Amino acid sequence: MQKTGVNQSAMTVPYLKEFESQALAVLKEKSADKQKLKELLKRYATRYAKEYFAGT
Amino acid sequence: MQPDMRRNILLELENIGCLKHLKLELKPGVNIIKAPNASGKTSLIRGLTSMFSGRIPPAHILALDAAYGKVRIQYDGRIYERHFRRTPTGQVGSYGDFLPFADHRAFDAAVALAETGIVHKVTGGGKIFREYLENLSYGSYYSAIISAAQELIDEISRELAGPSFEKFEMLPLLLTELTDLHIKRDQIKEEIESVKARHEDAVRALAEKMEQKKAEFSKEEMRLSELENSLTQEEERERQLLSFLEVADGSSKVAVQLKEGILNSKNQQQRFREEIARQNKLLQNLRQDIVKLENQLEQKKTKPVEGMESLEKSLNDVNKAIILKEEEIQHAERFPQNDPRYPGRLVIEVRKELLRKIEWLNKVTEHFQEKYMRRMTSARLRFNSNVARAFEELGLKRFENIFLDQDFVLHIVRENGVRQPVETLSASEKLTVSLILMLAAKETFLPDFPLFVIDELTLSYDPARFKQIVNYVAKRVPYVIVTCLASEMPSKPEVVYAV
Question: In A9, B114, B293, B318, which residue has its Cα 20 to 30 A from B164's Cα atom?
Fold first, then answer.
């Protein structure tokens, strides 16, 4: 049941998979930079706010 | 066991800690490194650790008096080198190879140091292991994402509560106020029109009255003229009658009639004169009335309309207030052109965009919270299971159960079911518990990592128990490296193999 939840969540949150792979790459860097992670989050949040509702 | 793990590891250190130069050979099995105090055991462990984890800062590894140092390892037929260099400013950097099985988590799961990590935590009475399991299970990655997302949500929320958006929240009120001002302006305008109309009516009425007076004056003037003519005629008639009387016989009937006619004429003239005098008086009054009306009319036309000044001032004030309110509304609706973040953009659009950002960040937070919970629960259960197996296999019957609860708090249950706080364990028991927790962590999260290092933990330990645990570790890990004190040994570390 939980696994289904994950899949649903991953499917319903736009750009999540793309974000996750990039976020994990940032976090795996030797000097994991929180600011860099926040920039990445900001970039995807902006993309969602601008693109996902385009035409609505 | 992998066959390539069964080969010896050649370790060479140069200017590492207090070691100028040292070569050691580590064999599969238990490698006991014996040396007296301050002879470089911990330096050796730090140097070795630097080849698979960057957790120890390079400045703590390089010899204090050296500008350069090196760790060299021959493993599985290959040579790996890591270099340490001090810059002119005194900073120490490192570069070079890591061992192929390098994993920064190994510092927490495979290096038991008295002064750091889990051993230090347990011996210090620490009992909450959330962060420890977070780091080992990569749950920390998810918590870092959650924390960063929350920080961003907070930042955006603060921005939305800031002055620009606060004004936008006031927009309905500002629009109502603007409507009220427009209504007030219309009312004042209506009143001004009404006052003007009343004034014009009054001027018109005065003018009409004056025209009437003038017409009356003309009429009365004609009447005066008629009276004056009549008087002149009557005077002429009297003169004629007098001339007739001069020639008529004084006692005759004609003379009597002429005298009577003259008297009548005189009387008539007297009436005319009286009437002319009245008429002149009337005309004088009319003239005065006309002058008075002319003055009144002039005054009405030239003097300001009563009440108009204050009304016009009110109208001016309201117009100014409308301009200010419209500017305020414009600022509430749109960011200024020189705004560094949203130049000239509509506030409602930016607000919507920020709320959508929060929406995405909330979704991401929710997703990773679920993932974090699952990852951490799974990590905890596997960890508990490995801890239980270790205690069972070691036959440590004085402990019935040792586990982390859902809040990652360590519980220690004695054989009689009594729970004992970790801080009340003996020093030897704390050491046993910490080593078993670390081994369980290694088996749970780094099952293929080939090393397990125990640095000088034997001082307060029961030798038989220590041997039992080391042998237990050796069954699971290809290379076990143990350092311990040996006062009679030479001045630099040497390996005693105890396979």
Answer: B318
